[in-house]
Amino acid sequence: METKDIDHLFRHHSGKMVSVLTRIFGLQHLDIIEDAVQDTFIKASLTWRKQQPDYPEAWLTKAAKNRVLDIFRTLKSQKNNLPNISQGTDAIAINELFLDSEIEDAQLRMIFTACHPKLDPRDRISFALKTVSGFSIKEIASALLTKEETIKKRLVRARKVIKKAKLKFNIPQGKDLSERLESVLEVLYLIFNEGFHSNNKTQLIRTDLCTEAMRLCQLLLKRKQTQLPECYALFALMCFHSARLETKMSLDNAVLDLKQQDRSLWHFPLIQLGNSMMYKAVETDEFSCYHYEAAIAAEHLKAKSFEATDWNKILKWYNALYLLQPMPSHLLTMAVICMQTEDYKMANTYFNQIQATDLEQRAYLFYAAKADYYAQNNNFPEAIIQIDLALNKVNNTLEKAYLEKKKESWLMK
Question: Taking the CA atoms of the chain, what radius of gyration do you get in angstroms?
Fold first, then answer.
């Protein structure tokens, strides 16, 4: 078996194994469990060079469980640390914990653990990507535009809090569930967003992050307790955005904005799935930020062409979203929408409420939008000043090329 196949299996199955083994052995042994799963994959990469087993995932799961037991025995700690596996956790036989439904249950428990309020908000997404999704420290650092050393510290800090606070490996109930779910949805939204518009220097789209966020969101929707309107709305939003993924880049790897995308290539089955999720999401009158963002994405998908977009309706949804979630990024988008309707006075009103620094790593978007504003008003010298500021701030090489192409066209005016 090739190394890339082992890596693929690790990504897709290590989170499952870490979650189910944590359910068996407890959160206090998370370090040992993660080491055991890592050891298992090293062993697999060596063993499978000769012959691949018929059921690779089953082989990995069994080997990981046995490896944990070996470690506990080596430490001579089975009396104090080893659970009574003859009876299993929650009176379920150990073998039954490896059924698909029980693995999903264990993963949901891990998601809610990763989003516990006692964990620092900055640590939650790193911990979730590591334990639930099987991302390496290097991959997490790349996805979050953070140094590997910082990610290591966040993971160590999260594990210390889990041990010190003796957090329970369960799905919260009642009021605790709704409070924790808010954090879970925020983490899934951030994972998806990083995939849809990555901060990575060389990749604009990280399909693996989008897919993982959708998979975890689907886990929530499979359980009655978490089949809630905001969960359906978030999944609808992910479906709507994912339907456009393949059209965001040209064949020669250039960035294509909404105006340039080939709408005939948008993935209709995903749009249909998103629509069906939205029907479930609006069964109540209470709307979350995900409802409004999904409604905005749906408006773009409805339009037969860029010119046919109902910008007034989109602005209406953004106003509602801003009331719920007053963020500078929303104000910037509202300014851009006003530019589409040639309401430059209102666009300028929105621009004046934002500082580029408010957008942190996305500050280049402010300068790029201002450049478009001046270009549309035929003030090309000022447009070039603004786009140079954007070029100085942008991290992604593909977006930089997109902005440079714009600048070249303006220099010819």
Answer: 24
